[in-house]
Description:
Largest sheet: 7 strands, antiparallel
Distance between the termini: 24 Å
Number of strands: 9
Order of helices and strands: EHHEEEEEEHEEH
Strand order of the largest sheet: 1-2-3-6-7-9-8
Mean pLDDT: 92
Strand content: 15-25%
Shape: globular
CATH topology: Aspartate Aminotransferase, domain 1
Radius of gyration: 15 Å
CATH class: Alpha Beta
Structural class: alpha+beta
Oligomer: single chain
Amino acid sequence: MYELKTKENDSDVIEFIEKVENPQKREDAYKLLEIFSETTGYKAKMWGTSIIGFGSYHYKYASGHEGDAPLVGFSPRKAKISLYFATGYTERDHFLKDFGKHTSGKACVYINKVADINIDVLKQLIKKSVKFLQETYQN
């Protein structure tokens, strides 16, 4: 059976951020930590080795695959900062129009630095993602 690699764990979030080599990315990680914590009301937790997640939900797909994931989160990766929002939230593109400089994938939005984005839109995306997942998965 498939074993999910990205699980919540007890690794220290601040220790992880302190190991981010790029000083700008480290500073941005602290800014994002503050924004996500304040906006969600959840304590930051490490998921896997590199994702800082907030809250959690249990999903189960029609295929039978199930697991736990953070409601929202971010990861200060070498190339870009990954922001994790709800997969399946169809309104996301509406908000991204006013988000600022970014690229996006299925569940992730990638930014170079926090200064490139609209913080108010980030907070809306966080709130909408959390609400969507809580309503969809009824945790």
